[in-house]
Q: What sequence folds into this?
């Protein structure tokens, strides 16, 4: 390779690298997690993230609106999504913003979460306290949402039943499913 050619290739590689960083920055700028050093980029964008992770319902530490064009929310059971929409509006009337940080998940994504939990907690028994297998997860069937931030989770624990939304597990104040009729009584959260 001549010196000139090598210089050209290097310049090309650098340009592609910078472009990739800019795209990554633009994509994440629409959500809470800003990329350090790229804060000069334009503010929130409505461009949906269309990554391999997103298509599996993996929001990668982002939170999204219930109305986002993201498989994590578009693939939820429509009745659940409608109930969450109503809850989001009612919470907003009380100045509480309810965001979604997990909804529908692909089987593959749930498998990876369970594998990570096995490593983290050291045994299947412990892991099952926190993460369901793909066979049993209500996220995989589109029947569960995890809400954020914590203030939103507390709001949901107090008012979710108005919309049929109930905290399903005692140790997960963020995880809600449609477990009663609107205005009904939620079953006690399951201890697992
Ligand atoms: Zn959950």
A:
């Amino acid at each position: 390779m001549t010196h000139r050619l090598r210089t050209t290739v290097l310049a090309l590689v650098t340009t592609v690298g910078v472009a990739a960083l800019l795209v990554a920055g633009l994509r994440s700028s629409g959500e809470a997690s800003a990329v350090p050093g790229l804060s000069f980029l334009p503010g929130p964008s409505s461009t949906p993230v269309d990554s391999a992770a997103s298509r599996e319902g993996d929001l990668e530490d982002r939170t999204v609106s219930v109305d986002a064009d993201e498989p994590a929310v578009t693939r939820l059971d429509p009745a659940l999504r409608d109930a969450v929409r109503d809850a989001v509006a009612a919470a907003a009337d009380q100045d509480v913003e309810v965001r979604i940080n997990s909804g529908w998940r692909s089987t593959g994504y749930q498998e990876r979460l369970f594998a990570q939990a096995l490593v983290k907690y050291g045994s299947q028994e412990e892991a099952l306290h926190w993460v369901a297998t793909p066979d049993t997860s209500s996220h995989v069937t589109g029947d569960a949402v995890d809400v954020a931030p914590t203030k939103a989770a507390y709001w949901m624990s107090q008012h979710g039943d108005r919309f049929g939304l109930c905290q399903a597990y005692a140790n997960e104040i963020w995880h809600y499913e449609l477990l009663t009729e609107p205005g009904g009584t939620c079953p006690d959260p399951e201890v697992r």
Observations:
- The longest helix spans residues 3-29.
- The CA atoms of residues 99 and 148 lie 5 Å apart.
